[in-house]
Amino acid sequence: MDKRLATRDEATRTGDDGWLREPMRRDRLLAALTLLVGTGVAIATPFALKAGAEFFLPVTAALVIAVALVPVLEWQERHRIPAPIAALVCVLLFLIAANIALAAIVVPATEFFRLLPERIDRIQSNVAPLLDFYASLTHYVDATIEKFASGPIGRAEQAAVAPPNSLIELAATSAPVVIIQLFFGILVVYFFLAGWTRTRARAITNRSSFGGAMATARVIQAVVDDVSAYLGTITVINMSLGLFVAFWLWMIGMPYPLMWGGVVALLNYIPYFGPIVAALLMALGGLMTFTDIWMAMVPAAIMIGCHLVEANVVTPLVVGHRLTISPLMILVSLSFWGWIWGTPGALLAVPLLIIMQTVIGAAGKPDIAGFLFEHGTLTTYRQRNDETTTEEEV
C-alpha cells in the first residue's frame, strides 16, 4: 500500500497521470454509451407500443386486470382451492361483472342514440338562441373579411369519407379483431393468475442474496397491494357516483338513468377529461329529452355537482395519502398513453403510473446526473486535474 501511494504521489508530482486518464476515459465512454442507448430506447419505445397496439394493448390491459385480481386469487388459495380453479373463478367473476356493466350501458345507449335523428328538431329548438347568435356573429365576421380581402374567400376542400352502409358492415370490418384481442386478453389473465404463486416464488428464490430476495418480495407485494387497492377503491367510488347520479336523473324524469350512471362511472376512471366528456354527453341527452334549454342542462349540472363532491371530498377521504399521485404526473401519463392507445390507453394511464411509481419507489430512482457528472466522468476528471495543477505549482 505504501509503495502504491508513493508511486501515485511521484506520478502526480511529475505530471505523469496517464494511469489515471485511462480509467477515466473508460468511465466516460461507458457513461456516453449508456446515455445514448437509454435515450434511443426511450424514444423508440412509444412508437413501438403504438405500432404494435394490437399486441401490446390487450397484453397490458390483461396484466393490469390480473394484478388487480391477485388478492382474490390468494384468498381462494388460502382456502385450499387449486390455482387453476381459482384463476378460472377470477376470470369468470370478472367476465360476469364486465358483461353486466356493458349490458347496462351499451344496450340502452344504442336504443337512446338511435333516436338522435328524430330528435334533431328538438335539439335545434333548444339551442336556437345560440344558433342565431352564432349565425349573426359569422355573418358579421364574413362581411368584415370581405371588406378587407381583395378576392373571394377560398374554402379548404374536405375529403369525403364514406361511412359504413350498415351496422353489419361496421361489425364485419372491426368485430373480428376485437373478438381476437378479447380472447387473447382473457387467456393472458387466466395463465398469469394460474402461475402467479409459482412465478412469484421463483422470482424470489432465484436471487443470489437474501437482501435481493427480500427486495424482490417487497416490490412484488407493493405493486399488487397498490394496484388492487387503487382499482378496488376507485371502482367502489365510481359505482357509488354512478348510482347517485342515476338516482337524481330518475327523479327529474331522465330516460335510462342507469345507463347514464354507468357512463359516468366508466368515464370517471379517466381523471380530469372523463368527467368533462360525461357532462357533454349528458348535456346532449338532456337536449334530446327536454323541450326547455334550462331543464336540458340540469342532467349535466347534476353530474358536475356530484363529481365535484366526489373529487374533493369522497376520494381524498377514502383513498387518503397512500396512493397520492402528482397531478402533473397524471396529466403526463394521460397524454402519453392516450396518444399511444387512445381511450383504452387513457383508462390504463393511472394504473400503469401506479405500477411504475411503486417499482421505482421500491427499487430506488436512478441517479443519472450523479452517474454522468460525479462517478468517473467530467467532474472527477476536472477535480483531479485541478489537484495536479496545484501540486505542480507548489
Describe this structure in words.
- Helix content is 82%, strand content 0%.
- The protein has helices spanning 2-14, 18-51, 53-78, 83-113, 120-126, 128-148, 167-194, 196-205, 210-251, 257-267, 273-289, 293-296, 298-319, 327-363, 368-373, 378-393.
- Helix 3 crosses helix 9 (210-251).
- The longest helix has 42 residues, at 210-251.
- It is globular and about 80 Å long.
- Residues 11-16, 150-172 and 376-394 have low confidence and may be disordered.
Write a concise keyword list for the protein shown above.
single chain; 394 residues; mainly alpha; 16 helices; globular; disordered C terminus
What is the 3D shape? Answer: globular
Could you report the average pLDDT, rounded to the nearest whole number? 75
N-end to C-end Cα span: 25 Å
How many helical stretches? 16
Structural class: mainly alpha
What proportion strand? under 5%
Helix amount, in percent?
Answer: over 70%
Largest sheet composition:
none
Radius of gyration, CA atoms, in whole angstroms? 30 Å
SSE series: HHHHHHHHHHHHHHHH
Unreliable sequence segments: 11-16, 150-172, 376-394
Quick one: how many beta strands? 0
In short:
Helix content is 82%, strand content 0%. The chain has 394 residues and is an all-alpha fold. The C terminus is likely disordered.
